[in-house]
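So, who can interpret the following?
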Amino acid sequence: MDNKREQILAATEKLIATKGLHALSMQLLAKEAGVAAGTIYRYFKDKDDLILQLRNAALAFFADAMLEGFDQGSNEQKFKRIWFNLVNIEKLCKTDTMTFEQYFNLPGVDSAEQMAHEREVFADLIAFFEQGVAQGKFHQLRTELLFAIAFEPAISLAWKIRRRNFEFSQQELEQTCDICWRALQVNPETVSNQLESSTK
């Protein structure tokens, strides 16, 4: 891995995290990264290419943190592990790393290419939802809607914990996580907590 390339990406993320995307200029970036302005163009075609590669690096970070341990345990355990990974993900973000909110505000994040890349990165999670729907365990909804029901509360709580210094007890978080898990299920009173086969 090229150290200067990583140095430039880290400096770009720091500038966006601390000053906002509007403050990002190649001159300021060169200064922050400790490289000549021309050096940036040895690694990135232009500012758009730099943002694209930063998006992909940030997505890889979020995906690794979110899906840690996804291949272990029952499907309920997998779900709850991801849910808590999301609640805790903001703790991994330092003051010079982007948050979910900043990532989703990057230019091009909603492009067809980027969304296809996200589907590839989260293929195992998508398969998890699709399997639950196919087996009649989860509601017949699009994956994006199932994700919103299941995990957006965790993302919101993570934001409150980091930005607003909210504190929640472990019992409160576990109860909320259980509600999200049950909300996916067609009949949470009778559906088994484990789907018959695991997603790999």
Observations:
- The chain is about 65% helix and 0% strand.
- The domain at 57-199 is CATH 1.10.357.10 (Tetracycline Repressor; domain 2).
- The radius of gyration is 19 Å.
- Residues 191-200 have pLDDT under 50 and may be disordered.
